[in-house]
Amino acid sequence: MIADDHPLMRSGIAAVLSHSPRIAVVAEAGDGDTAVALFRQHQPDITLMDLQMPGLGGIEAISAIRRINPRARIIILTTFSGDAHIYRGLKAGAGGYLLKNMARTELLDYVLSVHRGDSRLPADVSRNLPTVLTMEPLTRREVDVLKLVATGHSNQRAAGELGLKEDTIKSYMKSILAKLRARDRTHAVTIALKRGFWES
């Protein structure tokens, strides 16, 4: 099954996979809710799951599918190689992580490899794994604070926006800088975007 909100991306991947007599695309979904429903109906051997979709997101859909079938083999399909995405995908139960720019032959080999039970990552993703396994992720509130900082909010304005005290924002920023090992606010925003804590 292919779950991606871009019809052209879905049809392109389906066309590539159809070249292998060992692969049949049994379902396509344009959002996470449909993906979960179609998984329940078709029980595909492999699911390719986009991260960014309307409604239920990719990570949440992976978790829902794994509740239906804990042995489900799911490959995250994405343009992002940030280590926070790797962390969340692996934690949700993905057995692979596929960048959308992967070459056609690699796509076929990768899908068949995961079907055999291998759990491997593309080279440019696996390079980030040491960071993923040792990093302390930002909390949802810390991401909220950093997003406001990224748009130019002062501590005072961020506090007003979130209904917090200015000292609380300062405390959050101190924690954020420490976790990201950032020199300053701008550096923290750059690192957070690169690691995939949120998309620009």
From TrEMBL:
Record's protein name: Response regulator
GO terms of biological process kind: phosphorelay signal transduction system; regulation of DNA-templated transcription
Residues covered by the HTH luxR-type domain: 131-196
Listed PROSITE patterns: HTH_LUXR_2 (PS50043), RESPONSE_REGULATORY (PS50110)
Listed SUPFAM superfamilies: C-terminal effector domain of the bipartite response regulators, CheY-like
CDD domains: LuxR_C_like, REC_NarL-like
Superkingdom: Bacteria
UniProt keyword list: DNA-binding, Phosphoprotein
GO-annotated molecular function: DNA binding
Keyword Nucleus: no
Residues that bear 4-aspartylphosphate: 50
Lineage: Bacteria, Pseudomonadati, Pseudomonadota, Betaproteobacteria, Burkholderiales
Residue ranges of coiled coil: none
Pfam families registered for this protein in UniProt: GerE (PF00196), Response_reg (PF00072)
PANTHER family linked to this entry: TWO-COMPONENT RESPONSE REGULATOR (PTHR43214)
Occurrences of domain Response regulatory (ranges): 1-115
The keyword Electron transport is assigned to this record: no
